[in-house]
Design a protein that fits this description.
Chain lengths: 496, 492
């Protein structure tokens, strides 16, 4: 059984997506339990897989027993073992938290939504687990298409902004495919490990250079790396809560993973950092991403949209960290994949709860919210502290590694950008907290004569949120273990 | 130095945190306040139970989690931490009693929230006192900033909001903008953050870089209210008076100077500062803050604002003491943490008691108040003597040592600063006391009948005033702890 985990984590959700579609015809209420079971099984397999990797080292799984480079192999090591766990757990928690809001926002589309949801998770898990560059493209498209469909189910301008996302996403995927095509022409292989073995003599080749740059740009479009970010804020803001809180934490982070995988495995760090020598300009781009994300977030008067710009800044954190070219920076980038997924999930679940009770999340709607939804607000505070980077929440520790990396690499601009973004985040979150606490002002000197009754979101939404919020602190406290036992082995020895 | 491993420091930090769920859920105010007292007494007893071990010269260590070598969440109880923890945990008990009198006397809203965040803030304070390295200290420092924000903005009106913004901007802005990068740069230089006997930066960096780090640390802990990062403190006086009393005379600002003292002794080390000749820089910054703060205090009419500026000046005495880099000076600075705490908290208690009993906030409205509130004003007089540094009060001891320290370090200008500042202190405190008691009958603004604030307000301020006097005759254990720390630092 445990031998089959790499296959199960993709096949179970994939088949379940079909079953959910079918079950939707019979009885809509069957869909949710099937989805929970499927994602529960996937999460179980992912955790089991990570534990196995920790014990035995990297695992290669050959689909149908075909050997690479002919067949497709799934290749799970410390790096993607960790990301798999994050993706599956986030997807599972969000599914449970979102049930009520799906029923409220999309009453007649629950069955297709659950099917798409599970399909999206299939794609994400597949992207992370696969060891085949072309297979990755296929799964990328599965993820993207199911994502477009889910986001377009939102209200108002959702369709338009999703169309925009679709154009950009398709261009990104095409770039990636083109890059893989170049690689295939040069090496004759699609298997990542295989490519890495064939490439070294070809490092000087213009085709390899082209392949790398084209792949990288494709991935950047997909992760909304500044200045290719314009599609993200609107698409994520207008989508249904359940879709935003799945896609916002995971898709950008998985794309960061793909970038790191390209650097570490496919092209090797030697090529990426030494032969190409483009680290400096890319880190400068990351600095620009962080500054622009922070400044654009400041201009927003809408909680959800503000959070989307924070994602743009956070993408800058991780791209910059990965391209610092040293161990601390890479550790920070990988750790931040984990932390940022949890942080983003936390704040987007909060938005989901607010949308469920208030039907709006512009700043003007939030006045006096702390009396109505004290627990949701508590989670927003913890999520906010983590995004600001206050210890002992996990956001602090990844920032620690990123700044350390910046200092070691002598990239002080990146350090300044990270600190600037922290300070802006303080302003962003305390502005929201102020509104929730103080407004509307009562006439009497602080004495609230008409306290609004508490109207919290249902328990099914609160409990997952609570788990995530506590998780932010626990992951922070166990940073040492995560770094020493997992991330340390995920980064090749050649990076110091 | 011998060490023992014990979970007590962690317990001392957590005990006030653990009661917050009880505080939130208890409906009856009396039950809630009873739990506050239980936690306060328990915290004090836990701290006290570690005192004999520390006095024997043994350090108590406990590691919670280590995420990098040399950068762990770790507690270490040494003499300096013990001194600070004793002061803050003992004053929490007294302040809790005072809070009850004040908050109920004024029928304040949201009292549950108030007591919760108060407990939270005390956890963070003890955490700073007992932290073994910069990372842990930074963690609790930030926790304190966040826990005190709801207390500063307690009144929830426009003024509270703008003060809260200023508070966060100064405190969190400097800690993220200056202290955090300084900490990371230090870690990358030295590979550790553990406070050392003579610091850990010696021999790792050039003089300009050390100077830059000194600048970043000195101003990064803006809770120490060193000018020009001081103006949050008068703004934060919008908070209810017990908050001002404990947090702005004891916990918050003292956490700031404590952090600065820790960094100067445990990160840089006095030898390094001496050999690079950074002592005068620190002395200059501290002296400027002392004199300017005292001058501004002269011009204040709001009693709490006057006390705030007086605090700004007094805090820099502590920094000044360490900046002298001489054993007696450092001892004086450290003892001043305790002496100033008992004096200043009494003054704030008096300001609050006057507000509860008469509703007056300005000094110009307090003419003749001594006839109405003799006990309160007598305590005010004693406490102001302590701040000025005159016998029969504890403040005399620390000032005496600061004077000795400046002689020892051959810093004559500092002697002048100390004496001139004492004159200024007298100049802004004594008229208040004088006009409270000795005014012409037609000037008096109050009837000639004694009417004090509720006993919950008066008893605590009498206790702290009496302790201020006792501290002159019996400055142990604070004095002993400070000299132990100095011996540890200088290795004599």
């Amino acid at each position: 059984m445990s031998q089959q985990y790499p296959a199960l984590l993709v096949i179970v959700p994939l088949l379940s997506a079909l079953v959910i579609s079918a079950a939707g015809w019979i009885n809509k209420r069957l869909c949710f339990p099937i989805a929970v079971a499927a994602l529960g099984a996937a999460a179980y397999s992912c955790i089991g897989l990570l534990l196995r990797v920790l014990e035995e080292g990297a695992i290669v799984y050959r689909f149908g027993g075909w050997d690479p480079p002919m067949g497709i192999a799934y290749y799970v090591d410390h790096l993607n073992g960790l990301v798999l766990v994050v993706v599956s757990v986030v997807a599972f928690l969000n599914l449970i938290a979102s049930k009520k809001s799906i029923e409220l926002e999309l009453p007649d589309k629950t069955a297709p939504f659950y099917a798409l949801y599970v399909l999206q998770v299939t794609g994400l898990l597949g992207i992370v687990a696969t060891g085949d560059a072309f297979n990755l493209y296929v799964l990328l498209e599965i993820t993207a298409l199911s994502g477009y469909a889910m986001l377009a189910m939102g209200k108002d301008r959702a369709q338009l902004s999703t169309l925009n996302y679709l154009y950009m996403g398709t261009i990104g995927a095409c770039f990636y495919l083109l890059g893989v095509g170049y690689l295939y022409i040069v090496t004759g292989s699609l298997n990542m490990v295989d490519i890495a073995n064939i490439l070294p003599p070809l490092y000087e080749s213009k085709a390899v250079l082209g392949a790398f740059i084209i792949c990288l740009v494709g991935v950047w479009i997909k992760m909304a790396f500044f200045p290719l970010h314009a599609w993200l804020p609107n698409a994520y803001t207008h989508g249904p809560s359940a879709a935003s809180s799945l896609i916002a934490p995971l898709v950008t982070k998985v794309m960061i993973y793909v970038m790191i995988r390209l650097i570490l495995t496919v092209f090797t760090p030697e090529f990426a950092f030494n032969v190409l020598a483009v680290s400096k300009p890319i880190v400068w781009l990351a600095v620009a991403a962080i500054f622009m994300g922070a400044i654009l977030a400041l201009a927003e008067r809408n909680l959800k949209k503000m959070l989307t710009y924070i994602i743009v800044a956070e993408v800058g954190y991780m791209v910059g960290g990965a391209w610092l070219g040293n161990r601390a920076g890479m550790t920070g980038a990988i750790l931040h994949i984990v932390n940022d997924a949890l942080m983003t999930l936390c704040v987007f679940l909060v938005v989901g709860n607010i949308a469920y009770k208030l039907k709006g999340y512009a700043f003007d709607d939030l006045k006096g919210l702390v009396r109505k939804m004290p627990f949701t607000m508590g989670a927003l505070v913890i999520g906010g502290l983590s995004i600001i980077g206050v210890p002992p929440t996990c956001g602090f520790f990844s920032k620690w590694y990123l700044i350390s990396g910046a200092i070691q690499a002598g990239q002080y601009a990146f350090m300044v950008a990270l600190l600037f973004s922290s300070l802006v985040n303080v302003v962003l979150f305390f502005r929201v907290i102020e509104i929730c606490y103080y407004e509307p002002f009562s006439n009497a000197h602080g004495h609230d004569h008409h306290p609004e009754p508490m109207a919290e979101a249902p328990l099914t939404m609160l409990v997952p949120l609570f788990i995530v919020a506590v998780g932010l602190i626990l992951v922070g406290l166990y940073t040492g273990d995560i770094v020493n036992n997992v991330i340390e082995f995920a980064i090749p020895k050649s990076i110091v | 130095m011998e060490t023992v491993i014990s979970i007590k420091p962690l317990l001392a930090v957590l005990v006030s945190l653990l009661i917050t769920p009880i505080l939130v859920s208890s409906r009856a105010p009396n039950v809630r306040e009873a739990w506050t007292f239980v936690a306060a007494v328990a915290k004090f007893l836990i701290v006290l139970s570690m005192l004999p071990t520390v006095l024997k010269g043994t350090e108590i260590v406990y590691t919670v989690a280590e995420f990098l070598p040399g950068a762990a969440i770790k507690f270490r109880v040494d003499a300096l931490g013990m001194l600070f923890a004793l002061v803050s945990s003992s004053l929490w008990i007294i302040t809790s009693a005072y809070s009850i009198g004040y908050m109920r006397g004024l029928k304040e809203h949201s009292q549950t929230r108030y007591f919760c965040y108060f407990a939270f803030a005390l956890s963070a304070t003890i955490g700073v006192a007992f932290s073994a390295n910069l990372l842990t200290m930074y963690l609790f420092y930030e926790m304190l900033s966040l826990a005190t924000y709801p207390l500063v903005t307690h009144h929830q009106d426009h003024e509270a909001r703008s003060s809260g913004r200023k508070y966060l901007l100064y405190i969190v802005g400097t800690s993220i903008g200056l202290a955090l990068p300084a900490m990371l740069i230090s870690y990358n230089l030295a590979g550790t953050l553990e406070f050392g006997r003579q610091g850990f930066l010696a021999g790792t960096a050039s003089k300009p870089l050390i100077g830059l780090l000194l600048f970043m640390f000195l101003f990064g802990f803006a809770k120490a209210a060193i000018m020009p990062f001081h103006s949050w403190l008068p703004a934060a006086m919008v908070a209810p008076t017990p908050v001002s009393a404990l947090l702005h005379a004891v916990a918050v600002v003292k956490v700031g100077v404590f952090s600065v003292v820790r960094v100067l002794t445990g990160v840089f080390g006095t030898d390094l500062l001496f050999s690079l000749d950074f002592g005068p820089v620190i002395l200059f910054v501290a002296s400027a803050t002392i004199l300017v703060g005292s001058f501004i205090a002269l011009s204040q009419d709001g009693l709490k604002r006057l006390l705030a500026y007086s605090t700004i000046a007094q805090l820099s005495y502590i920094v000044l003491g360490v900046g002298l880099l001489s054993p007696k000076g450092i001892t004086g600075g450290m003892v001043h943490i305790a002496m100033h705490a008992f004096g200043k908290i009494t003054l704030f208690f008096c300001a609050g008691a006057i507000f509860v009993a008469t509703g007056k906030k300005n000094i110009s409205e307090m003419v003749g108040i001594g006839r109405r509130m003799p006990v309160t004003m007598a305590a005010f007089f004693i406490a102001s003597l302590s701040i000025i540094g005159m016998p029969p009060c504890g403040g005399f001891v620390s000032k005496w040592y600061l004077v000795l320290g400046s002689l020892e370090a051959h810093q004559m200008p500092i002697l002048f600063v100390l004496l001139f500042s004492s004159l200024l202190n007298a100049a802004y405190f004594m008229p208040i006391v004088y006009r409270a008691f000795f005014c012409r009958p037609e000037e008096a603004m109050f009837e000639n009948t004694v009417q004090e604030a509720p006993p919950f307000c008066v008893v605590p301020l009498v206790i702290t005033a009496v302790i201020s006097v006792i501290l002159l005759f019996y400055p142990q254990p604070f004095f002993r702890l400070a000299s132990m720390m100095v011996q540890h630092i200088t290795g004599t």
